[in-house]
Amino acid sequence: MAGPPLLSISSLHVSVADTEIVKGLDLVVDRGQIHALMGPNGSGKSTLAAVLMGHRAYTVTAGTVELDGENIAAWTADERGRAGMFLGFQYPEEIPGVSVVNFLRTALTNRTGTNYTVLELRLKVMDAMRSLGMDPSFADRYLNEGFSGGERKRNEILQMTVLEPVLAILDETDSGLDIDALKTVAEGVARMASDERGFLVITHYQRLLEYLEPTHVHVFVDGRIVASGGSDLARQVEADGYERFRPQPATT
Q: E strands along the chain, which residues?
């Protein structure tokens, strides 16, 4: 008998400062699936990503979010991370004085409960960097300090590769990337895709999806999923824009 889906979102409503942002979202992401959530600026995509990772600035006013059948409403961001949830940020922050390898050592220790030595973690990071075609010197740079936009996004994919989450949420990871960086992101996701892992890729454009073949595509407008389909839907959005998916005013 099949178990519960990896991620199940049911009738989710989210507000911030008394303004409703997510307005009754239903979404199921299972293992082995790559879901692309496409929407215009201001549609609530990044709010959803933050809520899934337990950001306390947002208030869930109704609905549920379950991971492997467990309601995670009361879980902190740390607890969600330890359970195997990962968020790739749209705008990764700098952490001066903390090297990439030391950051990953702390994160992986918290994720797995195993206290890795610096050497063990360095070997693991170097393997991941080779698979992503990254310069080994990258590991000793301070986290995101002086990084270009593309380097920050590659670093997010490196973190995902090392941490091996069961559910990876990528919030507009393709924003501002050139073609080479887009390919790195797509290849990193494709390399990790498996029957044990699910992805929710949040994006504004179809560009990333030219290199990453999603199993499901959803159009997210004004806090709601208004259309779902396959890769053809992403191409339709690219050709026609989001206006045709917006609710039309009632006529009298």
A: 7-16, 19-29, 34-38, 59-67, 70-71, 85-88, 95-99, 142-143, 167-171, 198-203, 216-221, 224-229
Dist. CA 192–CA 135, nearest whole Å: 20
For residues 192 and 26, is the Cβ–Cβ distance under 8 A?
no
pLDDT per residue, tens digit, the chain (252 aa), is 568 999 999 999 999 988 999 999 999 999 999 999 999 888 899 899 999 999 988 999 999 999 999 999 999 999 999 999 999 876 667 678 888 888 888 888 888 888 888 888 888 888 888 887 788 888 888 887 777 777 777 888 888 888 999 999 998 877 767 777 778 788 888 888 888 899 999 987 777 888 888 999 999 999 999 999 998 998 889 888 888 887 665 555
Q: How far apart are CA 132 and CA 161, in angstroms?
A: 9
**Residue-range domain boundaries for the chain:** 7-93+166-245
Residue located via tokens 């990790």: 192
7-93+166-245 is classed CATH 3.40.50.300: yes
The pTM for the full model equals: 0.89
